[in-house]
Amino acid sequence: MAEKTQFVLMAEYNHLMNQRMLQASMNLPSESLLMDKGAFFHSIIGTLNHILIGDILWLKRFSSHPSEYSALKKMIDEKTPESLRDILYSDISIFSKKRTQLDSLIIEWCNELNEKDIERAFSYVNFKGECHSKRFGSLILHLFLHQVHHRGQVTTLLSQEGVNFGETDLPEIIPDFI
Question: What is the DSSP-derived secondary structure letter of residue 163?
Fold first, then answer.
């Protein structure tokens, strides 16, 4: 299976899991979402915002790709978060709208990807101002793995609130092989 196909699958999985996470989170009172539970990003809302910030930072970087992906043009004017711990949206309803928009953009962008670009180097400057050049496909993979890692933390925080998040396995959406 081509890497682009894998990235489209990951984008769809990301969207599904984020929708489920938002549905589970919306059933909780605001105080529970904002409560410091001793997690690395303190709270459910803090961790959700961190995932969003990571996506924004990487998509903004990817928007400078020489292929000028049309889906990422929207990211050029997106405000760059000042910190990986910023709370961009403390209200889950407002957060949900931004998360859903970003997930749609990621799916659109992954459908635009081409295998040649995936194999090439991509240069970027990280949050510390350091310049790096790495395989573009590996950086895209990192975007998705970062989401999965921190969503796992959110499911733990939700569990502490008595919320059963349910199924999180990728095979649920992998098409049957005939």
Answer: -
